[in-house]
Task: inverse folding
């Protein structure tokens, strides 16, 4: 059953960023839909829909959106937070097995593309007052920074950054917002494993509440917010 409350869909709902984003948006009156491989759908409630989904299969993404629409309504905010990496030999990056490369690319990029397509189909049906925001959780790897053992993650982040930039330019006049979220330290370096779920949640809410498209690449610092850094 659909709801008059706004709906957020979080694809890749891990214990850090995903759960912080879910709680923050719920406090603002959003119905929350979570999708990840480990979720148990029978644990869903009237305010939180849990969907078991393997995002290494891009064909499964449209089914996630269908379930959200049927249970909660069309999502006005979509967060793609899933990521995958298979570390490679830094001195022999092309030794990475094709199976691993394809699986990680599906999670990092191809399923993101399908999710963005589905988000736009929904945004087109929502009222002008709706947020209509798509946010991809990225990192520094779409810039000139190279971390040798993380080649396939860098490929995925770079490709998806291009998708987000293209969408931000193309759909801005329709009121659809697309962002690549990238947490940094104050000096511009990546926080690596010290990512702040709380900072992501607060910043993503600000982006969702914004009235128009801002810079597509949203580099931000905990307790500071948006901060532009050199990209090359």
Result:
């Amino acid at each position: 059953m659909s709801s008059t409350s706004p709906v957020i869909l979080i694809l890749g709902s891990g214990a850090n960023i995903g759960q912080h984003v879910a709680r923050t948006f719920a406090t603002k009156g959003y119905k929350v839909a979570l999708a990840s491989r480990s979720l148990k759908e029978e644990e869903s409630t009237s305010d939180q829909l849990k969907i078991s989904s393997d995002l290494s299969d891009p064909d499964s993404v449209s089914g996630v959106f269908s379930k959200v629409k049927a249970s909660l309504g069309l999502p006005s905010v979509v967060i793609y937070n899933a990521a995958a990496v298979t570390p490679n030999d830094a001195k022999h990056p092309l030794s990475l097995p094709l199976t691993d490369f394809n699986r990680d690319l599906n999670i990092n990029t191809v399923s993101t593309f399908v999710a963005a397509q589905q988000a736009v189909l929904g945004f087109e049906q929502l009222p002008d007052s709706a947020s209509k925001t798509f946010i991809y959780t990225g990192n520094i790897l779409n810039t000139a920074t190279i971390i040798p053992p993380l080649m396939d993650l860098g490929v995925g982040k770079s490709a998806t950054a291009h998708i987000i930039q293209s969408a931000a330019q193309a759909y801005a006049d329709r009121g659809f917002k697309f962002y690549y979220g990238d947490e940094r330290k104050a000096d511009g370096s990546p926080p690596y494993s010290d990512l702040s779920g709380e900072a992501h949640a607060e910043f993503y809410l600000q982006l969702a509440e914004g009235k128009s498209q801002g810079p597509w690449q949203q580099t931000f610092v905990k307790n500071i917010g948006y901060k532009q850094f050199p990209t090359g």
Q: What stands out?
A: The CA atoms of residues 185 and 194 lie 10 Å apart.
